[in-house]
């Protein structure tokens, strides 16, 4: 179709990384509220205050005042605190020749990390975090029918709100009691109301579990399937490349939607106010080639899998740290691992594995 094309019912489709970044960086011309933008979906669930968060000054304020929770150093501390003991158990099991389901482990670990970051109880049994993850999958799955329109019918909104109630059951207590080193504590400190805090908590659950687990597990699979584990074992300095390549090729946020807020020209095409744009980030990032741990940094794709502009994923450092920590665990034995069984997740918004069982290679 070329770098940008208009498709009936869907709107403008962008597959070029440079043009996609042009759209993401033009905050006056392209918004998240209005038909086509993810803010339109969240506003229908949480009200106008959530819409103002996506499109106004409050968004910048929250990002600024919560930024210290998402630095590289903070990410390492968070992941080790919430996941370290569990990684030690996984490493021990692999060292003894046992089998580990990386997909299940990633779901549990992502749930524990998000609970810790929010200020919710992080010491519950693993099944509790599996249930949170499953609820997040169900909520994200409701967006599968919004490719042609982000307007939700009343039945879908009611179903979504029921799932949100399940996901955020502990938020009122966390909002009241959590320390200011947590996201809910910051919300309280900033004077954000509980409804907006619930919306932000739900957003973090989706972003921190669905995409994080997908990127982690699919990177582990890519490293195995391409036979590049040995290169990483021989040269651990390639770890940052392996993580970046895994996220580039997997691109957990495979599509990003925007609403055209005013007439704009992109790639020589005129986009009119009210149009919708779908950025096919999976195609845009994969144009650089297949997974390769020796690939140099590609400036055109520059973390496009985390979005761009002022809505660039605030948890990017956390996501990279999670993937790194899992790969370190899987390679802890000093030997490559092999996939003994796998099963893809079906009817999910974020492509993922339902199961990916691995064990050390013989």
From TrEMBL:
This is Cytochrome P450. The keyword Acetylation does not apply. InterPro entries: Cyt_P450, Cyt_P450_B, Cyt_P450_CS, Cyt_P450_sf. Belongs to the cytochrome P450 family. Keywords: Heme, Iron, Metal-binding, Monooxygenase, Oxidoreductase. GO terms for molecular function: heme binding; iron ion binding; monooxygenase activity; oxidoreductase activity, acting on paired donors, with incorporation or reduction of molecular oxygen. Transmembrane segments: none annotated. It comes from Actinomadura rubrisoli. PROSITE patterns: CYTOCHROME_P450.
């Amino acid at each position: 179709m070329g770098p940008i094309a208009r498709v009936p019912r869907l709107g403008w489709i962008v597959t070029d990384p440079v043009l996609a970044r042009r759209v993401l960086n033009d905050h006056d011309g392209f918004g998240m509220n209005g038909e086509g933008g993810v803010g339109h979906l969240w506003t229908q669930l949480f009200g106008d205050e959530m819409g103002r968060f996506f499109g106004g000054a409050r968004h910048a304020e929250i990002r600024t005042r919560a930024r210290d929770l998402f630095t590289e150093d903070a990410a390492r501390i968070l992941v080790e605190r919430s996941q370290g003991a569990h990684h030690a158990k996984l490493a021990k099991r692999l060292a003894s020749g046992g089998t580990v389901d990386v997909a299940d482990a990633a779901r549990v670990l992502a749930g524990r990390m998000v609970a810790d970051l929010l200020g919710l109880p992080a010491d519950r049994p693993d099944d509790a975090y599996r249930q949170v993850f499953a609820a997040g999958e169900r909520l994200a799955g409701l967006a599968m029918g919004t490719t042609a329109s982000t307007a939700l019918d009343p039945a879908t909104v009611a179903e979504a709100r029921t799932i949100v109630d399940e996901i955020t059951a502990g938020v009122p207590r966390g909002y009241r009691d959590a320390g200011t080193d947590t996201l809910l504590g910051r919300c309280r400190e900033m004077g954000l109301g509980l409804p907006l805090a619930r919306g932000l908590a739900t957003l973090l659950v989706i972003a921190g579990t669905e995409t994080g687990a997908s990127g982690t597990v699919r990177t582990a699979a890519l490293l195995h399937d391409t036979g590049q584990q040995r290169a990483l074992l021989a040269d651990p300095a390639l770890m940052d490349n392996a993580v970046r390549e895994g996220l580039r090729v997997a691109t957990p946020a495979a599509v990003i939607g925007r609403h055209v807020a005013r007439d704009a020209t992109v790639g020589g095409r005129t986009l009119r106010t009210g149009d919708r744009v779908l950025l096919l980030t999976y195609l845009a990032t994969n144009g650089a080639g297949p997974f390769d741990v020796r690939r140099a940094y590609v400036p055109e794709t520059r973390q496009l899998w985390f979005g761009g502009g002022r809505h660039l994923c605030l948890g990017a450092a956390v996501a990279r740290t999670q993937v790194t920590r899992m790969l370190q665990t899987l390679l802890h034995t000093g030997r490559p691992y092999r996939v003994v069984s796998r099963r893809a997740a079906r009817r999910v918004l974020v492509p993922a594995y339902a199961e990916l069982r691995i064990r050390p290679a013989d």
